[in-house]
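Forum > Structural Biology > Help requests

Title: Can anyone predict the 3D structure of ROK family transcriptional regulator?

Hi all, first post here. I have the sequence for ROK family transcriptional regulator but no way to get a structure on my laptop. I'd be grateful if someone could post the structure tokens.
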Amino acid sequence: MEGAGRSLGARALLSLICAGPMSRAELGRRLGLSAATTTRTVRPLIEASLVEEGPPAQAGGPGRPTRLLAVVPTSATVVGIKLTDDRLYAVLTDALGQVLAGASRPLTVTDPHSVTTLIASVVTRLARRSDRRPDAIGIALGAAVVERRTVVVASFLGWRDVPLADMVGEATSLPCVVANDVRAFAYAESWYGTGHGHDPFALVTFGAGIGCGIAVGGEVVSGARGAAGSVGHLPVAPSGPSCEIGHAGCARALASTAAILRAAAEHLGCEPEELSVERLLSPQLREHPGIDEVLRRAALAAGRVVGSLIAYVDPELVVVSGEGVAVLEAYRETFEEEIAGLRHWTAAPVPVLLRPFEFDEWARGAAALALERWALVAGDR
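Reply #1:
Sure, ran it for you. Structure tokens for ROK family transcriptional regulator below:
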């Protein structure tokens, strides 16, 4: 039992340090371990060159200097994969989440076996570029995922009940985890991104879909069935248009990229495929009263989603990302007024940052999940 307890402690400790350097005292506090047990747990990780101690740093007051523990950057490399409806984005990172190499491939065939084969091929290529076999793989996609293994439904790929982690693990002989892309993104941001040090922290994305990731205590809430943060179909304007599955006035029907382009196309008498968000935001088209109404309505819907989230969770910080950020920046006053209107009169305002991200940063979110998976395995050694 003592060996099993130490193994569990080592796994949890290594996973915590992956998120950033930490003192023994803080680690012990987080894990509920005594100082002696923390020292015994750390020692084999240092001897295995998984963890290293920094130089002594004197605290602000009297007392012994603090030595922070950190993961050795070269102790691991992992691959993070982000899947969209037509493309695969991949990054190879070290144990601190620093990107060492990247790749992007088109998804011309999207059945699970073909995608698995492509993932295995990309992992092999990245391994050759780094001259090192990766330690784990993380995959993120717009889907409901259970137990970080099975894709219950990924509508944009037409998948249902796909055991993707097992399929990729078998194809690559590497540990693999799978997660919803927004939650994976929120996980990485809470570890070593904008959300680091903010608890709770929330990330909301507006683009092809609308989603939310909430990190509490450094852990992202997945929910009982892997669907926590599925805010896209929340009703925001009961008299508004319907989404593709018939929900009247939901956020997706007003603020998703497809909904914005579809509504704009009706005003302009063209096909949605002829438009883009960037084009709609051009000075010429924004002067069109119909286009201005579509964009303003999208910003209002986004504000209601974010404002409702803040009312329920009371996060320290909210980051808003995705293609729709450009619309929110252009109509920031509308967006922020709606958030403010949903705040309880006794509650302090919550900072909301608008930050565009590239898809390789979404892949980095998947890599953070892979790092956690590696830490759990390495802590058992």
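DSSP finds 14 helices and 16 strands in the chain. The chain has three domains: 2-74, 76-187+360-378, 195-354.
Shout if anything looks off.
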